[in-house]
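2 proteins. here.
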Amino acid sequence: MSERFRKECKTMVVSQPSIRCWTTKHVAKWLKEEGFSDYVDLLCNRHRLDGTSILTLTEYDLRSPPLELKVLGDIKRLMVSIRKLQKQNSDVLEELGYTYEGWLSGSGAHSPNSIQGSDWLYNGDPARDSDEPVASLSADQYHQYTNGKYKQHTRRLDPEYWKTILSSVYVVFVFGFTSFVMVIVHERVPDMQTYPPLPDIFLDSVPRIPWAFAMAEACGVILCNIWLLVLLLHKHRSILLRRLCSLMGTVFMLRCITMFVTSLSVPGQHLQCSGKLNSDMWAKLKRAVAIWSGFGMTLTGVHTCGDYMFSGHTVVLTMLNFFVTEYTPRSWNFIHTLSWVLNLFGIFFILAAHEHYSIDVFIAFYITTRLFLYYHTLANTRAYQQSRRARIWFPMFSFFECNVNGPVPNEYCWPFSKPSILKRLIG
């Protein structure tokens, strides 16, 4: 508090102090006078609201964490009392950089210049990242009313780059560990003469296409390039990359377990799967590095056997497809259609090449889609914040998503400063 405010508070100690001088005790007294004694402990003791804080409180603050008032009538009555307080202290609001113009009579709308329309709506986080003045937006552009809560169309999301780095380290470690497990599994592959391919309806009905697996990997490369372009231009690219790394790492860690515990016979006689017996650990590590550096793709010269349950190629194709369709606008029908075509054709080519059993591909598609949908449902609804069980069962999810409240909006921006040619063209 500045020296001027201290002097002002001392001179007004005998009379009613200015709201700028209110402590939590004054706020508690005001709440009791207004008939909100039940909320004194929550607002004053636990969250230490003083005069300035209570003056800038909004209805969204009351509804959202950490306050989360549940009784609608109390929320409305408390906001009425706060608005009276704001009106009585409009000069203080102006000194704080806000103006109070009141609410439109008979409606729930408010002026975009009012305290409710300011950038205090998100618990102190600025409502917009752009340099446009707040007054240039209409009230309808600020909020939509969904499930009883005011939601804001645009809000500031902390990129939390350090978490993104951690998730990247996690997925790199998992890919390295997967490569090593693939080396171990390859040495344990069942003998083709003793254990012939298992019966499979699709593989028995569709003749093998020799070039199909290369086409499946080509579909994956195209999907990967589309995703990288979306990621590069997306405003919240750090959150997207963090989610991709955490999901991809988790699915491939599960794949390590499934392909290690059970070794299936090769799905086709065309596969040259005699065990590569690496005599020492150093030879195994060198082979694992070769698989890891080649991304496990035959296009880069990597050939492995035994890693059948379940299909890693299907995981990558499906995960990239879902991320592309989730983080592009719904109106981008061409991109969505192309993404799904590449995903489905890639899966068909995997089966047509007789590189995996049908059950491998089905389980990979099912696990990938379920994990993606569960993850984003929890993140978008913030259900884990109210569920102790969810935080226990999904600790990594809770860690990565604890500061991302609600869906990530699909907003795009140029990742770097404008090139000189673009500056000349568009200013």
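next one coming up
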Amino acid sequence: MSILQKIKDIEDEMARTQKNKRTNSHLGLLKAKLAKYRQELLCPKSSGGGGGAGEGFDVAKTGDARIGLVGFPSVGKSTLLNKLTNTFSEVASYEFTTLTCVPGVLYYKGAKLQILDLPGIIEGAKDGKGRGRQVIGVARTCSMILIVLDALRPLTHKRIIERELEGFGIRLNKRPPQITIRRKEKGGISLANVSQLTKLDEQSIRAILHEYKVRNADIVFNCDATDDDLIDAIEGNRVYMPCLYALNKIDQLTIEQLDVIDRMPHYVPICAHHCWNLDELLEKIWQYLNLIRLYTKPRGQIPDYNAPVIMSAEQPSIERFCNRIHRAILAQFKYALVWGSSVKHNPQRVGRDHILNDEDVVQIVKRL
């Protein structure tokens, strides 16, 4: 029996099984088996014939961040790429116009952002249909996913795309589960939960661990985890990234429909063909990428505002700032002078552990 057939059989059994307290353990076991088979599908054993990303999909990663345009065929991904980056990606009225990965570069707020126009995915892409495995494989390497939806069929496409990405280990707008698993040589399974578990019981946990052949481990739950969270923590290869939904072709909607869409989280209504609302889309992309700009100041000169150093807003310390410029700087680092909102007075002398804010100005002082 092929892996695809095994996956289908498990999905059919899950659909037939009524969800209640008695079946929680059985459903958790089925989900664990499903995750294992999908992992085998994602990373098949080598048969000596090559493989890799596939022709047209091995695009070098450049710039400060990578954004993947994901969506169904003919929703306007290529038009959006052309408008944002002035890169030519073929546009036509028929489906599957784009057959390979087309890269483009967007310069915004001093940052160099690489945008990838990926071929349209179809239902079953996670199982390899329509080159879906290569498309979603490239999407896993992105810093952010921009899902382009047709304004006339947004929810239908959204559910299918999310299911395909989830099947490939991509978690959208989620944080990694706060579950600590420490394997050991003996002693059996030890469970501890800091938070109360309302969606998992001990029987379900042990069934999932048994399926993954985890016999001896200390497991600590720091959140109200689900069986999917536990499977993700055991697998350890999930990708968590921000996602924005660009609702394209809004010229076909009424004002009342746009008002409803505007209140939905993670949505930006646009019309790529008429360049409507692209400014808000760019601002939202910048916000979801969670980047900050830092300016360098050579001694005795004015700050260089034309070439900012782009960093993630997650713990942007002076040490990371130095490594971002050149790793050899830290060996000669003495202290730094900082101007901006992260210090109490300008300039302020700080050490390598100081946390910077957006648009701070930094001058590095080296040892003589």
